[in-house]
Hints:
Oligomer: heterodimer
Strand content of chain A: 15-25%
Strand content of chain B: under 5%
Low-confidence stretches of chain A: 1-10
Distance between the termini of chain B: 75 Å
Radius of gyration of chain B: 31 Å
Structural class of chain B: mainly alpha
Helix content of chain B: 55-70%
Structural class of chain A: alpha/beta
Strand order of the largest sheet of chain A: 7-6-8-9-10-14-15
Number of domains of chain B: 2
Distance between the termini of chain A: 58 Å
CATH topology of the largest domain in chain A: Rossmann fold
Number of helices of chain A: 12
Order of helices and strands of chain B: HHHHEEEEHHHHHHHHHHEEHHHHHHH
Amino acid sequence: MALSAFGARAADDTIKVGILHSLSGTMAISETTLKDVMLMLIEEQNKKGGLLGKKLEAVVVDPASNWPLFAEKARELIAKDKVAATFGCWTSVSRKSVLPVFKELNNILFYPVQYEGEECERNVFYTGAAPNQQAIPAVDYLMSADGGSVKRWVLAGTDYVYPRTTNKILEAYLKAKGVAQEDIMINYTPFGHSDWQTIVADIKKFGSAGKKTAVVSTINGDANVPFYKELGNQGIKATDIPVCAFSVGEEELAGLDTKPLVGHLAAWNYFESIDTPENKAFIEKWHAFTKNPKRTTNDPMEAHYIGFNMWVKAVEKAKTTDPDKVIDAMVGIKQANLTGGVAEMLPDHHLTKPVYIGEIKSDGQFDVVWKTEKLVPGDAWSKYLPGSKDLVGDWKDKKCGNWNTVTNKCGA
Amino acid sequence: MRSVFARVFLTLSLVLMLAPARAADVDLKSALSGFLADSFPSTQKAIEAVVQSGSSQAPAIIEALQDERLYFARDAQLVAYKTKGGELREAATGGPVATTPQDLKQVRLNNRLRGIVNAAVGALTLMSSNPERRREAANAVFKSRDASTLPTLDSAIAKETDPATRTALEQARASVILAKSDSSDAQKIDAIGVLRARGDQDALAMLSAVAAGPETLEKSAAQAAAAAIETRLALWRNLQNVWYGLSLGSVLLLAAIGLAITFGVMGIINMAHGEMVMLGAYTTFVVQEYCRTSAPGLFNYSLFIAIPLAFLVTGAVGVVIERSIIRFLYGRPLETLLATFGVSLLLQQAVRTIFGANNREVGAPSFMSGAFHLGGLEITYGRMWIIVFALVVFAALQLLLRFTSFGLRMRAVTQNRRMASSMGIDTNRIDALAFGLGSGIAGMAGVALSQIDNVSPNLGQSYIIDSFMVVVFGGVGNLWGTFLGAALLGVANKFLEPFAGAVLGKIALLVFIILFIQKRPRGLFALKGRAVEA
């Protein structure tokens, strides 16, 4: 009965939403959760009566952590399934791989993960943090008295575009703050690195020069687990050398004994432990939807929550799902985030976000020890890199992703 | 920061010397109210005030704070701590709490406050009756370097009878004196001598700070001491690198040793080898999960239960794969490669479907956590036991192949299949068992790897390349080659890493192996004789 009713409905009766997250391969660990949260949001919207009088229909594809396959699957979603918008990607490589497809077929991508910036495309809405909404405030905190007045820095990352660009920005920023070259150590490791003995010993040695030292970690994915295990084994405590991570959330800590890690830090725009009515309701819905009271929530999930609700509002405002009209309607849309603030879509397609610094607790959650006073607007182009400091993205008035404020021309 | 310590300790030492009990209760009550505000600055004030109050409750409160056992309830205006047994006690009186308030919350700390608390506990326990506590206290003071602890330290050193604790106290004293601005030059030079004798990274950090400081009498002494420690540490660092290398080598050996049988001895290119390792790791997870829910007492022995189980599970899977797929493909390496690659994908997705894509937590039993010092070496227990395990597995396999009739038959079949068959050996059965043996060993390796790597469906993929590398480098068909190959590659990798970085180091190693194989296509230990041509 239900099936025939479903089949009988003509394709025009639904609005299709593409979900482009890896359900297999290395990235499945992070991305499966995002697929689930999208399904939950769509189900919830349908319970509220859908959108423009139509039901929403999720189209889930599996790009299998394979970067070229991301582009193929994106093409399939837009050309074959005729989705109105797509929510997807995690790694920057996968985003770069689908960009040409979204531009060519003129569709919308919502990208929910913190990333390295230096990009501003008309067809993409960046609902995760730009470097000035995560990395820079984290470094500021570590430099402050409460963060330990850090004087010496280890920038450790996985060897790919996000950590390398972020570390480039951080290095420029630290030097602008008067940190000497010999007080910065940069280290890269391959994806999935598991033998951290030498590197942790090196960090220990670097940290014994008589100045307060901290590690800023852009280590990604599973490599974090053996890294933190080794820190614990070699007895590096957060009170000696704190590690501040940009890619370690509740999900990553779930596979780990966190007792030796108490006090190490993470910088995000959302933590599951933040106590607001919105967040409480969201977590309850999530537990009910997944039928698992132990499932954690994390920052990219909140980004999808904000992005999806903004898209719904933009479609309602434009009264159509036509991508051109929705893209124009998106800028300026406001949506309450889960931590008590209101996110606004800026002309450079980034959001305003609060920045939180959390310390790892023994139960695997984070305790917020610091937050920015106001919401921080996301900068697509870093102010600290010589190549991009004059650029701004403005899709509202200038209709240009890389407007040069010095030459007053579009294009670098 | 320092001034905070100073205030805390000044009052603290006063308290310890005069030990007044008067008016303490009133002070303590108002001091404790600072914890109710749930903000770091007021928590800090509360810590200072509690110490200042001089109440007999102060040590219990500060220690509870250190162990995250201090709670507050704003509505009931209650600050309470849990004893180690989990019993809730009122902080002001030490008496039991009748009814647990609804809004009981833990007092939060950040790293800065944690430092203050550690230092306070250190100073409070310098005179403890337990030598271990005194040693911990000395280490805390060594780090906090606060001048106001000096009188307490002096009396503690005068009373101390345990030589190790005495050394720790003296080192703490030296560190304090060096940080104190008004110590005399002679005192500072003595302190530099003590730190030089300690000779570790922490001492080096303190000495290099002095050595980089303003031109003083002790500057040159500090420079000389720092240089001496540096030379000593450099030597130990090389030894440490050898140890790290051996540890990496043992992991490589474990991952490769099963492959040395299936690929090295039987000649099957088994791309699903990594998945056998992965299945072994998941077996460990299942065993631990069972222990957690049904028999918590067995948790520390879970690995010992998992080892034979993993061997049986993966061995059985291996036999099934051999009987159902590989035996039809003997002598066709390309097809074997493709088929086993397919099997590896199948197994990965199967595990993903059953256990989910997320990493599974495999805990470390207590004997595998932590580290100990051996001279200047820091040896982590986990890594040490893995080296031991690798050696045991290797020795057991050698004995099996050499001294059992199954080993004899297996060697016979691999050396000359037709001859062995004519002598009445069931070669099919031996093939299946040998493949099962290789897979089973891979499963046992998985138990060990679950301790140092992520237990995820992708676990095996990261080891398959390394395993082939080791077997080919060591010489196909030779177990001793695998053994030496693993050790050499591990040590070489760890010596390259500090100079070249992890990424370039690995590339350099691969390039070296490619060149090496060009020169010696059969690896380190080439098999000679008829078996080679078979």
